[in-house]
Amino acid sequence: MVFDFVDGGAEDEVTLTENRRAFSDLAFRARVLVDVAERPQATTLLGRPLALPVVLGPAGLVRMAGRAGEAAAAVAAERCGTVSVVSSGSSVSLADVAAAVGEPQWFQLYPWGDRRTVRALMGKARDAGYEAMVVTVDVPVVGLRERDLRNGLTVPPRVNPRTGADVLSRPRWLAELLTGPGVTFANFTDLVPRTGTSGLAAMTAGLLNPGHTWADLEWMVAEWGGPVMLKGVMTGEDARRAADLGCAAVAVSNHGGRQADGLPGALDVLEEVVDEVGRDVEVVLDGGVRRGTDVVKALALGARACLIGRPWVFGLAAGGVEGSVRAVEILREEIDRTLALIGRPGVASLDRSALSARPTRGWRPLAEPAGCACRSTDPHRRS
Length: 383
Ligand SMILES: Cc1cc2nc3c(=O)[nH]c(=O)nc-3n(C[C@H](O)[C@H](O)[C@H](O)COP(=O)(O)O)c2cc1C
What we know:
Layout: H1 2-7, H2 14-24, E1 26-28, E2 43-45, E3 48-50, E4 54-56, H3 71-80, E5 85-87, H4 94-99, E6 106-109, H5 115-127, E7 133-136, H6 146-151, E8 154-155, H7 164-168, H8 171-179, E9 198-199, H9 200-205, H10 214-224, E10 228-233, H11 236-244, E11 249-253, H12 266-277, E12 282-286, H13 292-301, E13 305-308, H14 310-341, E14 355-357
Parallel strand pairs: 4-13, 5-6, 6-7, 7-10, 10-11, 11-12, 12-13
Antiparallel strand pairs: 1-14, 2-3, 8-9
Helix pairs in contact: 3-14, 11-12, 13-14
This protein binds flavin mononucleotide.
Flavin mononucleotide (FMN) is lined by residues 6, 19, 57-60, 87, 89, 108, 136, 231, 253, 255-256, 258, 286-289, 308-310, 313.
């Protein structure tokens, strides 16, 4: 049940699959006899120095996967010299995650409820010292995650006839669930009426606000007052609007294939977004990153860093906080090895000349996008 919650995507999981496929459609143009004795990975994002170009992305309700919940990402980020983005849907409160680490983390806002609720959430994040805000805009409604429906996943999780044997065969997990703090949306307990136990989709649906527009984002950017990253951008047009509105960064993301099904892989649209706004704002790639080679490919296409979701959550499930740390370390080691093997002395030396693409790669918009200077992604029309 918990594995499916983390691993699964929406509907037929086409987008989930595309996120991984997109990486295998790019190959390295490896150069030899380059001095790769030094391979620095350090970079900055939203002004924050990062020891490696990997940020632990927001994931909510993670207490289900391990006792430390969202604090695992913050601790892992701090230990590895990077930062984590703490979900507003976290099961450990924003304040408790902040208290688990010395360095300020970043706050992810789901613009749920009305402006009063959104303002209250931002206030909690500000009071707890969060440095930057990541606004996730690809959840106007909840994606249809059929694995969760099939498993009867509820918040908090309840054992049902279907999952009984599954749960009983994992006594350590069950003991943690029963003895640890409850699984709930910790930041919302005083903001919305208690809903009791309910299906995940039903619970979230009561909080969503599909009426939000760019005007609301403009208000959020002004209200926050600090750096803002817009997460969930999948076109050049939307990236342009975000940049014009004052966002300092955009995360190219389809929510790890958990929301709309039938979207391209996140990496497939990275070039389009970088070409549109890469000179004005920082672009981050989110979705399907499992290996150091994936990070190197995204950076070569113009991303400044990658967000990871499932890798740190699986790390937590397998090995607690140490597991999340290990997930990031594995990526750091793999990025380092890849840079050496393709003849690139550090992440700053990466550019598109490090890559070859399969000729079939890319999606072609059927109409020229309105309101944006971005070029068609038709590979045959590229200069
Ligand atoms: C269990 C889980 C919970 C998530 N919760 C959130 C969330 O609360 N807010 C958010 O912006 N994205 C959330 N996401 C999406 C991730 O931030 C990220 O976009 C996605 O996982 C990236 O794909 P990857 O898992 O292939 O790395 C969640 C993802 C997972 C797996």
